[in-house]
Amino acid sequence: MNWNGRPMTRRGLLGRLAALGGAGAAYHGLTTLGLLAIPPAHAGIPVRPADIGVGRSVVILGAGMAGLTAGLQLARAGFDVKIVEANGHIGGRSLTVRPGDSYAEVGREKMVCRFDDGLYLNAGPGRIPHHHTAVLEYCRTLGVAMEPYIFASRANLLQSDQALGGQPVQLRRIKHDLRGRLSEMLAKVPDPAALDASITAEDHAAFKGMLEQFGALNRQGDRLVYRSSSRAGYSVPPGAGRDPGTLYPDLELKTLLDSDFWRNGLFNDMTDYWQTSLMQPVGGMDMIVKGFLAAAIPGGRTVRDLVVTESPVREVVNTETGVVVVHAKGREQADYCISTMAPSVLARVKNNFRPAYADALTRIQDTPAFKLGWQATHRFWEENDQIYGGISWTDHPITQLWYPSDSYFSKTGVLTGAYNSGANAQLFGALSHPERVALALEGGEKLHPGFSNWVHRDRALSIAWHNMPHFPGGWQNNPPELDPQAYARLTVPEGNVMLAGDFLSYWWGWKEGAIRSADLAVQAIVDRVSQ
After folding, report:
1. Is residue 369 a contact partner of residue 125, using CB atoms and an 8 Å limit?
2. Which of the listed residues 92, 248, 283, 460 has the most CB atoms within 10 Å of its CB?
């Protein structure tokens, strides 16, 4: 290829295309000319020119999901990359704890996992929604095996001290009795057009027929009423011969209103990111981290070769030509920096950020989060309650009890015996580990009477993320909604420093947000180099 009579190199063509229309023009021009392969529909990792970063350097602060994503992309695009991680653990909050593993909250005794071999606790993230396509495509590309994570089973339990004498009740009973009660009320409306003007008189019969099916109503003359339904289940299961079983008595609407079921857990599986079946990596959430670390990059290396651990950042300074980062194990001078640190942590590092930017960092709120894991003596939830995966909910401070979505019918398993945030997480975080265990046992007993006899107290693991080194919380509250001005300011690079992390997305607290924010930070650097 020639330009004004002189040979045109691939790099030269890329530069001229970028000068005309930026990185997008360069990318589309090369693909149109057949000089860059068009990525397949499910490429997973964005494809960029492999030499666009040659001669340029980037230092990334934090080896969590955003940092690893950015490191992989930039290294494959030819950049010289170093990832600086404050902790000894790689993966950020993607912490999977297995037998022999240990960790410690600040100022507290080290926790050591004593589960049986093969068991683990996802102490951080534990599930991936079906529409988090960036995470799932990276898993596909990196060869991370996946399996279903059951978010909700109709056999899961709801418990409130305000209803039914504090006794736990199956989710199916609450859901279907509520549907039946509401359907019966709507069936009494003489003119459905009063509810919706689009319903004509001719639609009245169809409307009632729909309510009959939706609420499992019974016809009594010209009336539709709700009585106990097999949808809600049986107190005595049906058998063979002449044993029809005994239906649960239906719950009155007043009982349902007096409880907190409709506030806590009842409708969660209707949320798009909490469908009844999600995904999880086989063997633990950190299998995604391992997939990233093993990913090949130029020079016969892997992403793991880019990471320096146990080296907290002490200083980040913009210069006229780049950025200087000082950390516990050295000093980096690079063209660009991507910080994936929590904004509140970055704000405390020595820096020369402009006042408006520094102020925006301090305005992003951190959320306390707490988890506790049990190894069970046997799978009592399956044997006693026919619960296979999902979550039970309670108004006790533990908030949730997760059941494992794998190894069904095996001898034992790991329960997430508490998962909460906000005030409940602060409550647990202030307690000693033995006090946390005692309080979590109390919550477990409310859902499963006898619980205290069915878990190994001496093997319990607890973690308050807001107490962990270099983690001010489990995640940051949604900045786009809570503080649009601060959020908008942080989306713009500060000199040669860019941010990435789930806090800089509309998927706050999710891996999807971390990965997508990393994509944007990488693209911002590619755009600058291209121009």
Report:
1. no
2. 92
